[in-house]
Amino acid sequence: MMKYQLFLIVISILLISCSDTKKSDANQPITILNEFDDEAVKWFKETGNASIKGVAKFKSKSDELRYGEEFRIELMPSCLYTEERLMKIYDSKESGFIYVEDGVPKFTPDPEGYHDTKKTMCNQAGEFEYNNLPSGDYYLIAFMLWDKTGGGIMQHVVLSEG
Predict the structure, then answer these.
(1) Which residues contact 80 (CB under 8 A, 6 or more apart)?
(2) 103: DSSP letter
(3) Contact (CB, 8 A) for 130 and 118
(4) What's the start-to-end Cα distance of the chain, in Å?
């Protein structure tokens, strides 16, 4: 009988500690294993003759479709750090979307170079454009937030000259 009670106490302590760990893990930054290498993405600062044109539209969880000039588009170079980070956010390194209501994770390390992106805004029709880009692998990310809803859309793009 005493062994049985001791067993129940040990199991209870383990269950409580596991549930507390899960709660605290949700607030912890996600660790990215690949280092951000500024040298590997220095081509991103060069000038080329490629361009990207697109339209960004986002449908909220309540099925409200939005687009327009309040939405920001960021262009960033592909590298192992970026791929790993976007995989954690979008469950893909090719394309995806997330809702702001589901939470936006924090990352460690969070290097300054990762945030050195090219930014533009959509026009009233949701259109955007980047010109004079060098060829390479890029990620386009549209941040579309309004009235405590919205989210992000990500698309991998490979550009060649011209």
Answers:
(1) 34, 35, 37, 40
(2) -
(3) yes
(4) 80
CA distance 58 to 158: 22
Using DSSP, state whether 90 is helix, strand or coil: helix
- C-alpha span between 11 and 15 (Å, rounded): 6
What are the backbone angles phi and psi of residue 2, rounded to the nearest 5°? -65, -40
Looking at the whole model, is its pTM more than 0.85? no
Give pLDDT tens digits along the chain (162 positions).
444 333 333 333 333 334 333 333 557 899 999 999 999 999 999 999 999 999 999 999 999 999 988 899 999 999 999 999 999 999 999 999 999 999 889 999 999 999 999 999 999 999 999 999 999 999 999 999 888 889 999 999 999 987
- The tokens for 151 are 């989210």
Which of left, alpha, beta for 14 (phi over 0: left; psi -120 to 50: alpha)? alpha
Residues 6+ apart with CB under 8 A from 48: 132, 133, 134, 135, 159, 161
CA quadruple 8, 13, 16, 21: dihedral sign? negative
